[in-house]
Every structure is written in C-alpha cells, then in structure tokens.
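To: structure desk
From: M.T.
Subject: fold request, one chain
Message: Could you run this one when you get a chance? Sequence is below, nothing fancy, just the single chain.
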Amino acid sequence: MGTGALFYALKKKNLNFHIILLLFGAGLPGVLLGAKMVLLIPETIGLISLGLLNIAIACYSIADKNLGQTIAPATLNNRPKSIGLGALVLFLIGIINGSLTSGTGLMVTLWLVRWFGLDYRLAIQHTLVIVGIFWNAAGAITLTLYGEVNWQWVAVLFPAAALGSWLGVYIGSRISNQHIKRLFEVSALIAGAQLIMQPFY
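Reply: Done. Structure tokens follow.
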C-alpha cells in the first residue's frame, strides 16, 4: 500500500530515522504476533471493536483543534521513558494490525501525532511507508504461511493501493495540515462505520 508513498518520501528526504527505527523495532514484532492470533479472534467481534476504535480516534482528533498542526518532536529528544511507552503502544497497535489490519494505520498516524509530536502530513507519510509496506508485508507473509490468501484480490489491490498512496502523499504535500486533519477524521469515521456494518451485510 505504501510503495507509491515510498518513492515520493525518498525524493523529498523527509522521513525521520528515529521514527522509522521505532516503527520497525516496536511495531513489527507486534504485527507478527497479531498475524498468528488472527485465526483465534471471532470475526464479528474483531470488526465491531476495531470500528468503534476508529470512530473514537476520529472523535479525539475532532475534539483537539490544534492536534497535529505543528511539528514538536520533544519526546524523541528529551524523554527516554516516554519513548519506551510510545514504543509499547506501537507494539500493541502492531498486534492489532497483524490480527485485524483494517484501520490500524489511522491509529499509528494519530499516535505519531499525539505522542511523538509529528504533524499530520509527516505522520501520514511515515504510516504509508512503514505500515503500508513493511508491517503489511510482514503480516501478509505470516498469514500466507498459516492461512489462505486470495491472490486474485492481490492482483487488483496492489497496483491500486500503490497508485493511491502516491497520489495521497502528492496531494497532502499541497494542502494545509488543517485540511489533512479533516480528511483524516472523515476517513476514520467512514472506516469505523464500514467495519461496524460489515458483519451485517
């Protein structure tokens, strides 16, 4: 999903090395664990729970009008204990990503904004690249080994997601953080509602 965003980010050289290390070191183990747990979770319960969480994320962002409007990465520079807590949450999100997948990129984005001080534009770029490519790839490989994959869907999803991620980052670089914040909130609300309704149709 993040391949298109990766080319754009490499061109602009705006990814944060410390954030990348945290997303890899803390998130990937969670993704691998979650991918092994997915077969144990009742689908309906998982979808509804994740849908409600996405709606809560949107509401939280809406309530804080200044959230993610500036870059203030104080946690990375001055608070080692806070980095540990931030990494723990990324690990837990990784578990959710590996087991339920849909919508967890929104959680990572909000956590990068809230805890690590990124603005929405930069947080989304990190999410698309690291979560969209590496987290999802790790989960996909694990699920391929332990479950079943519909490869016909992959043939459609991969090029569409690659193009969409590139276009999203391209547009995001040309609009304000306030507009990105609003799009993020709308996306979280739509994703949450879709996940909640999915078991019933």
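Reply (cont.): The longest helix spans residues 120-146. Let me know if you need anything else for the meeting.
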